[in-house]
Amino acid sequence: MRAGTGIVSPVPPRAIQVPPNSDLLLGAVCSDKSTPGRTRWQMTADERFANPAGTMQGGMLCAFIDTAMGAAAVTFVSGRKVRIANAEMKVSFLAPVSEGAELTCEAAVVSGGGRVAFVEASVLGPDGTLIARASSTYLFSDRT
Question: Please, where are the H alpha helices in the chain?
Answer without folding.
Answer: 20, 58-76
